[in-house]
Design goal:
By secondary structure, the protein is mainly α. The chain contains 25 helices and no strands. The termini are far apart. The model has no long low-confidence stretch (mean pLDDT 86).
Length: 507
Amino acid sequence: MLSNFLGKSPLWYKFTIIGFIVFNFLLYFMLPMFMDKQAAMSILSWLFIAEFIFTLAMALNCYPLQSGGLLTIQILALRLTTPQNAFNEVSANLEVILLLMFMVAGIFFMKPLLMYIFSKVFIKVRSKLILSLIFTLLAAFLSAFLDALTVTAVLISVAVGFYGVYHKIQSGESDYDASGIADRRQLGGEALEKFRAFLRSLMMHGVVGTALGGVTTLVGEPQNLLIGEKMGLNFIEFFVRMAPVSLPVLVCGIITTILLEKLKLFGYGEKLSPDARKIIEGYVEEEDRLRTPKAKYGLIIQAIAAVFLIIGLATHIAPVGLVGLGIIIFQTAFMGITEEHGIGPAFEEALPFTALIVVFFVVVAMIHDQHLFTPIINWVLEMPFDQQPGMFYIANGLLSMISDNVFVATVYINEVFEAYKSGNITKDHLDILAVAINTGTNLPSVATPNGQAAFLFLLTSSLAPLIKLSYIRMVIMALPYTVVMGLIGYICIINYETIAQFMGLGF
C-alpha cells in the first residue's frame, strides 16, 4: 500500500501527506477544547491553506491533484465547507473550466503553425534581449485582448515544441551543422542545462507579460470584467481608469526585463549557444524542405483557425471555452482528424489541470464559508479614507498570493460596493478603491503560482519538468518582477490623482 500510495513520490513526501491528514483530524477535535469553535475552525482552515500551498510547491515530486485532492476531501469530511458550496464556486467559474478544457485543446492542433512561426523568430532574432522583449510585449499585448491562460497555452506549446526538437536531435545521429561531430555530443550535458535555462527565462518573461497586459483592459482578466460591470465601465473607460497605474507598471516591467537579461540575475540572461543555434537552424531548414503538401495545407487551415480565434476572442462573440471548441471542430474537420484516438491527445495537457482547478475551488469555498478574509476587509474599511486605497492594494495583493485572485476581487468589490450603497463612501472614493482592488489582485499576485492561474498552469504543465521549473524556482524568478510591479503599483495608487492629472486624465 505504501509503495502504491502517491506512486513514485519520495518516501518523506508520502509520510508528510499522511502526517498532514492525521494532524488535521487531531486538531479538529482538540482545538475546540481550548477556544471557541469558530476560532478553532479558522486556525484549522489556515493550516489547510498552508498545506495545500505546500502540495503546489512540491509539484515536481507529485502532481498536486492527488496530494492536494486528499486534503480537500478532508476539508469536506470535516465540514469546513460543503459539497454544494464547492459546486457553487465551480459554477461561478464555469467559463474558466470550459476555457481550460477546450481552448488548450484547440491550441494543441495549432502547434505545427506555432512552431513554424516561432522557429523563424528564434532563428532570425539572434539577440536574447530582443527575444525576451518580444515574449514579454507579445504576451502583454495578447493578454490585454484575449486571456492569460490562452496566451500561456500558446507559449507552452511553443516551448514544448522547441524542447522536442532539441531532444529529437540530441537522441539521434544527425549532423545538421556539418561540423563532423554528432549533434548529440554537442547538445548534451552542460549545453542541455543552458538550453533549459534559456527556455525557462523566456517562459517566465512571457507569463509575467500576461499579468502586465491583463491588468490594463476590461477583458484582460476575469476579475477585471467583474469589477468593470460593477462600476458600469465600458472597454475604453476601464482602460483609462486603470491607466495611471497599469501603464507606469508596464513600462517598469519592460525595464525590469531588460535589466534582468543584461545583468543575468535571478536565473535570467542565459543565451542559446552558437552550436545549438546552428544545429536547430539546420533542422528547421530540413523540415521546411521535407514538408509535404498535406502538411502545408494543414498550416493554412491552422492559420485560418487562428484568425477565427482572434476575431472570436476580441469581439467576445461567445464564451472563450466555446470559441476554443469551435476551432477544435474547424481544424479537425478540415484536416481530416476524425478518429477518437487522434483527438484524445489534445486534451491530455488540459484535463489534469482542470481537475486541479476544481480541487482548488474547494479551498476557495472553505475560505468563503469560514470568513477567513472578513477580519482583514473590516480592518481596512475602518481606516481613514486617505489610507484605504493603499491598504486595499496591499491586502488584495497579499491575499491573492495565497488564494484565487478572482475570489479575492469578488469579495472586496462586493464589500466596498455595499459601503457605497449604504452611503459610507462617495462615488469618487469607490472609483479609486475599485482601481486598488483590480491592480492589487493582478500585480503583486505574480509572487506565487497560487495567485495567477497562468503561473499555476505553467507550473503543472508537461513543460515544467522538462525545463526544471519548480515552485521555488518560479517564485525566485518572479521575485524581481513582484518587487517592481508591486512597489510601482503601490506608489501609483497612493498618488493616483496626481498621476491622472499629469497624464491629462482628470476624473
